[in-house]
Amino acid sequence: MRETIAAIATGMGSGIGIIRISGEEAFSVIDKIFVPKKSKKKMSEVKSHTIHYGNIVFNNEIVDEVLVMVMAAPNTYTKEDTIEINCHGGSFVMKKVLEAVLKSGARPAEPGEFTKRAFLNGRIDLSQAEAVIDIINSKNKYALKNSINLLNGKLSEQIGNLRAEIIHNVAFIEAALDDPEHISLDNFGDKLENYVDKWVKTAEKLLITVDNGKLFTQGINTVILGKPNAGKSSILNILSGRERAIVTDIEGTTRDIIEEQINLNGITLNLIDTAGIRNTEDIVENIGVNKAKATAEDADLIMYVVDSSRKLDENDYEILKLIKNNKAVVLLNKSDLEPVITVDKMKELTNNRVFLVSAKENTGLEELTDYIVDMFTEGKIDFNDEVYISNERDKAALDNALESLRLVKRSINEGMPEDFYTIDLLNAYEELGKIIGESVEDDLVNEIFSKFCMGK
C-alpha cells in the first residue's frame, strides 16, 4: 500500500489514452518526466484538481504531448495522491509513456488495484467496489442502473442500518448482564422480537430481488427449438439484426449450437439456436439434436418455432415433452403461407402463449418481445430506490444472516436466557458485514479484485 502504482486506464486504440498513477510518490514520479509548456512549476507545487499542458520527456526525448491532471489526497478515487496523464491513444505511445512512468519510480498496478486501494482506504465498501466492475460489464439499462445504485451506496446503507441496530441491541444485552442492578432486561424479549421481525423482512425483501438481479446482469438463456426448416435460424437472424446463422431450404443445416446476445427492451437475451429436432441416422446431426435437448433442460425460456404450413408429427410431440415444465412461448411461423395448424390448436396442446409470426416478412415479433419482458419482470421493475442482488456472495451472506435472525426469534419464543440471543445476533452481524467488506478474509478480497481489468 505504500508503493506507488501505475497502469493504462483506457482501452487500446481509442483517441485518448490515460495513464493513471497513485501513491505517495505520484507527484515525484510525474515531476521527473513532465515538462509543462506554460509554467515552470513542478506538479507537486500546483493547485490540486488542475490540468496542465506539456510534454512527457524521457531520456532527453519527447515521448508525447499530453495533458496532466493533478489530484492531491484525500479527494481522489484511491484517497491517495493521483496523477492522470492524458496522452494520444495509440498502443505504442501509451506503452512508451507508461514505461517512462515505471522507470521513474512507480510499479505496474495489479488488476483492480486502484479500486482495491479505494476499498482498503475506506473510500468505498466492498459492495460498492464490486459495483464498479458490474458497471463495466453492464449489458443493458437495468443492469447499468442497478450497478449505479449499488455504487452510490443504496445497498451499503440498508446493510449498515441493519448492522447498527443489531449491534446496539447486543451492546444493551451485554451491558444489562454486566450491570443487572441498573439495567433491566424485563420484557426485553418482546421488544427485541419486534426488531427481529423488521430485520427478517428487510433481509427477505433483498433476497426476493435475486432472480431479477441475475436476470439483469446475466440475461435470459433462451433456447430456440423446433423441427428442421421450421424457421429457427431465420428467427435468430431477425432478432439479432444480422445474418448470424446460415439459412437454406436443406433440412439439418444447423447442426451445432449457435449463440447470440441481444438487447430486448432493456433486458438481455442470450439466444441459442439449436439443431432441428428429428429422428435421424446422420451421426453428426444426431449429436446436434441431443445437444439441443440437453440445452433446453437448462433454459430460462424456450422459443418453440412451429411451421404452420406443415402438420405436426412425432418430432413435434417430442418437443412438446421438452417444453412441458419450462417457461416457453410458441412461434407459429410461416403465417404468410396457407396454414394447417391454428393458434387455438397450439394453445390447447402447449398451454403457452402462441404468436403468429412470419420470419420471411418479419411480422409478429414486436408483440413477442413485449411479452417476454413482461413474463420475466411481471411489469414490476422500479428503480426509484430499489437495489437488486445479483452477487452469489451477497446472497449466501444474506441467507446465513436470515437463518441466524430466525434462530434469535426461536430463542425468544422458547424463553431462552438473553445471552443466547447475542450468539445468533453476532452471527447475523458478521454475515451482513461480509457484504460490505467489514468481515472478509484477505484471500477473498484478493480474489474479488483479481477479476477487474488492469487500470481500474
Automatic annotation (TrEMBL):
Residues annotated for Mg(2+) binding in this entry: 233, 254
Domain of life of the native organism: Bacteria
Residues the record lists as binding (6S)-5-formyl-5,6,7,8-tetrahydrofolate: 20, 84, 123, 456
Enzyme class: hydrolase
InterPro entries, alphabetized: G_TrmE (IPR031168), GTP-bd (IPR006073), GTP-bd_TrmE_N (IPR018948), GTPase_MnmE (IPR004520), MnmE_dom2 (IPR027368), MnmE_helical (IPR025867), P-loop_NTPase (IPR027417), Small_GTP-bd (IPR005225)
PROSITE patterns registered for this protein in UniProt: G_TRME
Cofactors that this protein relies on: K(+)
Subcellular location as annotated: Cytoplasm
GO molecular function annotations of the record: GTP binding; GTPase activity; identical protein binding; metal ion binding
Pfam families, alphabetized: MMR_HSR1 (PF01926), MnmE_helical (PF12631), TrmE_N (PF10396)
Key words, A-Z: Cytoplasm, GTP-binding, Hydrolase, Magnesium, Metal-binding, Nucleotide-binding, Potassium, tRNA processing
Boundaries of every TrmE-type G domain copy: 219-377
SUPFAM superfamilies with a match to the protein in the record: P-loop containing nucleoside triphosphate hydrolases (SSF52540)
Residues holding GTP: 229-234, 248-254, 273-276
Biological processes annotated in GO: tRNA methylation; tRNA wobble uridine modification
Enzyme Commission number: 3.6.-.-
Chief localization: cytoplasm
One GO cellular component term noted in the UniProt record for this chain: cytosol
Record note on quaternary structure: Homodimer. Heterotetramer of two MnmE and two MnmG subunits.
Function (record text): Exhibits a very high intrinsic GTPase hydrolysis rate. Involved in the addition of a carboxymethylaminomethyl (cmnm) group at the wobble position (U34) of certain tRNAs, forming tRNA-cmnm(5)s(2)U34.
Name listed for the protein in its UniProt record: tRNA modification GTPase MnmE
Gene: mnmE
